[in-house]
Amino acid sequence: MSKNNKPILKVGITGGIGSGKTTVCRVFETLGIPVYYADSQARQLMVSDPRLVAGVKALFGARAYLKDGTLNRPFIAKQVFNNKEKLQQLNSLVHPAVAEDGVRWHCAQENVPYTLKEAALLFESGNYKQLDKVITVFAPEELRIRRVMERDQISAGEVRARMDKQMAEEEKIKRSDFVIYNDEEHSLIQQVLDIHRTLLALIASS
What we know:
Layout: E1 9-14, H1 21-30, E2 35-37, H2 38-48, H3 50-60, H4 73-80, H5 84-108, E3 114-118, E4 133-138, H6 141-152, H7 156-163, H8 169-175, E5 178-181, H9 188-205
Parallel strand pairs: 1-3, 1-4, 2-3, 4-5
C-alpha cells in the first residue's frame, strides 16, 4: 500500500458468461480484497445517475423507465435485441459512466494493496485501459453452457447467442496478465492465492 493507505494497483477480472467470475471474486474477497462489480453497478447507475438516466430516455424514450423510476429492462432488451446500432449507443452511455464510477470507488478504498474490477465486457468496453493488470477466468464452452442453462433456466441455443456477443476466450487470454482455469480440475483457491502473492510481490518491489 502507498503511504496514504490507498490501493496501489487496479486489477480487472473478466471472462465469458458462465466462466465463474463471481465465484473467483468471492475468493479474493475472503483475502480482504474489495471488488467492484461493474455489471450490477451499471444497472444501479442507470436509475441513480441523472446524466445517464437522461441519456437513456433520450435514446429510448420515456418508456425506458417505469412509473416508480425503475428500469424497464424487458422494453430496453427488446429495443437492442438484434439492433447493433442501438446496443452500441446504449453502451456508449453506460460504459463511460461505469468507468468514472469505478475510478471514484477505487480512490475511496483504504488499507488494501489493490482493488478488483469485475466486468464481463472489460476489453470490449475499453475499460481495461484504466487498469494495471487483468485476470481472465476461463472455463470450457460446454461447461459454461451447462452452468448458465442451470442458473438462468434457458436453452443451450440462448446461451450460445449470448456467447456470440462476447469476445472470444482465446483473445481475452492473449490480452490478460493472468488466467484462472475454472474447469473443475484446477484448484480455484490455489490459483487465486498464487496471483494474490504475485501482486503483493509486485507492489512490494515497486
